[in-house]
Amino acid sequence: MAPTKFRHARFAVVAAVSAVLSGTVAGCSLESTGDDGGDAITVVVGYQSKTINTVTAGTLLRAEGHFEKRLDELSSKTGKRYTVTWQDYDTGAPITTGMIAGKIDIGSMGDYPLLINGSRASANDSTRTEMLSITGSSPRGALNMVVVPKDSSFTTLADLRGKQISASVGSAGHGTLVQALDRIGIDPVAGVSVTNQQPQVGASALESGKVDALAQFVAWPGLLVFQNKARLLYDGAELGVPTLHGVVAGSRFAARHPDVVESFLRAQLDATQSLVADPLGAAQKVADGSGLPPEVVYMYNGPAGTDFNPALKPSLIAALKGDKPYLKSIGSFERDLDIDEFVNDEPLRRAVADSGQDYEAALVARTNELTIKGRDSLCNREVNSSSAAELWLAGDARTQPAADPTCLLKAVRAARDNGHTVRAAYIVDPRLGTRWFADKAVWLREGDRFFAFTTADSAAAYGSEHPGAVPVTYEAAIGQVAR
């Protein structure tokens, strides 16, 4: 869908984007990065610890030391010494600023920031960047969401017309807001008032009532809802447009040190394998490294959540191309960007081959490798990942699968009856495929079966096709479910 006519107000947004992107890069003391200086090479990695769909190139990668291990292997071959400097940021904008300034060599960020990165960096051959891999993606767009205060009367995105919305302008969360408003006929610039704020500032503004809603990327919406400070209003999966986070590197650095770049990508593959093998353990490590609650990390990074396939799939590249008109319409592009030129999968192909994996298979994979598996002992049947739920009891080192939301309710009641405390319970929206907290979901009862949805909009859409489905609260559903 083409952007609506809102260029007349674009200059306010341009100023906001410029202010974000021109911010100083704290902690960068190296005058140059990636220069040999004899036999020593320093690699500066910019990451976002709380943007947990970049964990395989950031928080988890750092916690498990995979990059350093791969550089040690490289050192044994080249005789050179390598050191890694990790720099943590709240959004992708300062990482882009650092890369253009020559202070950051490798970074990770969401789709809109990646495009802005490529656009800004392409102004000069010496600052040009290239996108190398995917860290996390959602085929429908569930990585970005809009939340409102818990007691807000708003029930749908259309209720935000003329309201104050906090967003990090030019971020992935802002991008979803722009497209979602455009789709329902609200001018994303003139139809609402967007306050350009860092995620944590926006979270405080929402809590204090200074803004009516907050549009952000993971993990902020889930965190605020988990903390009972917000309610989910809009699930980005309603767009049906893939969203992604990925790795970007300075082209000059990559040309000078291709072996270092490949070592980073191999390390990303190591972290990905570690996460897939033990998602709960990985969530604990990410929680320790980010300060986020493990329950929130596991909601996004657990089975049926984010797809951590690193392949640069054609569908994801097509989504990036589809994002360009929206970025142009709000003035976020200083220069046009040739995405086919910006995306470079050769280093990843080599890294995957060196790791003994099949890149072509990863390219065509249609399902998330990380799924809920096992047998539901209470309902006595094997789990079907498309409708599966999951229960995490306090004190348990492992979670337990539930065949569907109805079985999850039974498991929660049984756990309570036996004196156990539920740490977290997760459902998957049957319409949108989004993983979400069971106790924060919108529930419907249809006969003896129960269904859970991320938003009132999603539940209403289901209810319109199933007139027998009636609203029920989570606690009421636990009491009503058949024994």
TrEMBL record:
<protein>
    <submittedName>
        <fullName>ABC transporter substrate-binding protein</fullName>
    </submittedName>
</protein>
<dbReference type="InterPro" id="IPR015168">
    <property type="entry name" value="SsuA/THI5"/>
</dbReference>
<keyword id="KW-0732">Signal</keyword>
<feature type="signal peptide">
    <location>
        <begin position="1"/>
        <end position="26"/>
    </location>
</feature>
<feature type="domain" description="SsuA/THI5-like">
    <location>
        <begin position="143"/>
        <end position="280"/>
    </location>
</feature>
<dbReference type="Pfam" id="PF09084">
    <property type="entry name" value="NMT1"/>
</dbReference>
